[in-house]
Amino acid sequence: MIPDNAGAILTPILVLIVGFMVDVKVGLALVLFTVFGAGQIMLMSGDKSFMAIYQAALEKMNSETVEYVRGMQVVKIFGASVNSFKALHKAIMDYSKYALNYSMSCRKPYVRFQIIFLGAIAILTPFLVLFMDLQLNPAVIAVDLIMVLFLSGVLFSGFMKIMHVSMYAYMGISAVEKLEEIFTGMQQDKLEFGTLEKFENYEIEFDNVSFGYKDEMILENLSFKLEANKSYALVGASGSGKSTIAKLISGFYKIHSGAIKIGGKSISDYSEDAITRSIAFVFQDSKLFKTSIFENVQIANPNARKEQVLKALHLAGCDELLAKFPLKDQTVIGSKGVFLSGGEKQRIAIARAILKDANIIIMDEASAAVDPENEHELQKAFKNLIKGKTVIMIAHRLSSIRAVDEVLVMEKGKIIERGNDAELMKEDSKYKYFQDLYAKANDWRVRI
Ligand SMILES: Nc1ncnc2c1ncn2[C@@H]1O[C@H](COP(=O)(O)OP(=O)(O)O)[C@@H](O)[C@H]1O
Ligand SMILES: [Mg+2]
To answer: Domain 204-447 adopts which CATH fold?
Structure first.
């Protein structure tokens, strides 16, 4: 904003200087216009508190929109009613109300500014002639008048600029403040890391862990152990704390009490780099960057050679996908004509995780957004990813977790059952209940 600011401040000053250089009277007339214009602008930008309300309404509308779009899938699946739309509707109406109020509060000073400033120029100019020395050459008088008209026009547009600049400045400042607030919040919640670089092994343990995002505890005195190089699945109703556990292992948040250990030592003893290196996370919808497929995978290990990247793509089942594009792995994501399905994106994300070669793999609903036809390909990719690693899988598709070494069933932040598929299916377990329900739900789909 430096050029705009400089322009806004320098324009009136330079106009006045030029005015006085032409003629003292021209200069004085312009000073009059300046004082008047500045007064009107002060009136117009007076109400900063109003601007804050307006900004808050705008922000609310934006976040409600995002929330709505995100929830669309759920709305469709469960046939949710128009109620799900209410919050968004209210946010839009609120915003439109504040936007209108804000415009209305500016209306009077703005119109006054326009009319009087432009009107004053028109009305005052003939009077200026009276103050002029009429003995002078008429050509000089004409030049003076033209200068006043010309320079006051410049002044007018200068004032308009100041108005816009001050609005942008306000928006810029509040955006920076918001970002700083978020950043400080993140720093406060962040785990403090240590210096340890080497892991004894990759066994994971929760030792009496209590944690809550805010005051309400999500996990209370939770203890469990996951052996190294085995695969585990977390199963449970939505909101039971599965993702929370996954995030805590990666050191995303500080825990309230207890300890989370990898290889027998608290994760806060290790360096941040060591933790990042040893854990690969595959989310529901992985983020791909707007560069080539190759670079999207290579991000996981910038030192990787070309063959390594290509091998990771191969293991993740991307061969067919690459063959579709003439540029193969150099195809730029998001460029013209490059469309990837959810399953294809997910496989590129898995290639990234394979290349990273981390010892702990966490997959949180990694196949949730993938259609059943792609599921099979994805499962093959998963198999290559998890070979010989400590794996935690969270999946709604219960068919995809039957082969894990052990299933942990969660309910309200607690582990209520533990065992492999065969063991849990034999009893009258919550797990069996979930599996039966899942099978039934699939039955319904087949018959429709
Ligand atoms: N960032 C967050 N801030 C506040 N509460 C959260 C946050 N993430 C999750 N929660 C809450 O924590 C509980 C557990 O959520 P989560 O671990 O995501 O469940 P799951 O993955 O099993 O569906 C839920 O009640 C949820 O509302
Ligand atoms: Mg979750």
So the answer is: Rossmann fold (3.40.50)
Query: Within a 10 A sphere around the Cβ of 330, how many other Cβ atoms?
Result: 13
Tell me the Ramachandran region of residue 337: left when phi exceeds 0, alpha when psi lies from -120 to 50, beta otherwise. left
pLDDT of 91 > 70? The answer is yes
247-267: average pLDDT: 91
Pocket probe for ligand 1: among 215, 243, 249, the residue whose CB has the most ligand atoms within 8 Å is 243
Pocket of ligand 1 (CB under 6 A): 213-214, 218, 236, 238-244
Start-end of CATH 1.20.1560.10 domains in the chain? 2-189
Highest mean pLDDT among 68-77, 81-90, 205-214, 321-330: 205-214
- Distance between CA atoms of residues 408 and 402, nearest Å: 12
* Cα separation, 211 vs 222, whole angstroms: 9
Which residues neighbour ligand 2 (ion) by CB within 5 Å?
243
Residue 74: the pLDDT is 57
For residue 218, the CA-to-ligand 1 centroid distance in Å is 8
Q: Per residue in 407-443, pLDDT tens?
A: 999 999 999 999 998 888 888 888 888 888 777 766 5
Domain 2-189 sits in CATH at 1.20.1560.10
Smallest CA separation from ligand 1 atom 11, residue:
239
Q: How far apart are CA 242 and CA 395, in angstroms?
A: 10
Residue whose CA lies nearest to ligand 1 atom number 1? 213
Domain span(s) for CATH 3.40.50.300 in the chain: 204-447
pLDDT tens-digit readout, 206-245: 999 999 988 889 999 999 999 999 999 999 888 889 999 9
Protein residue closest via CA to atom 10 of ligand 1: 213
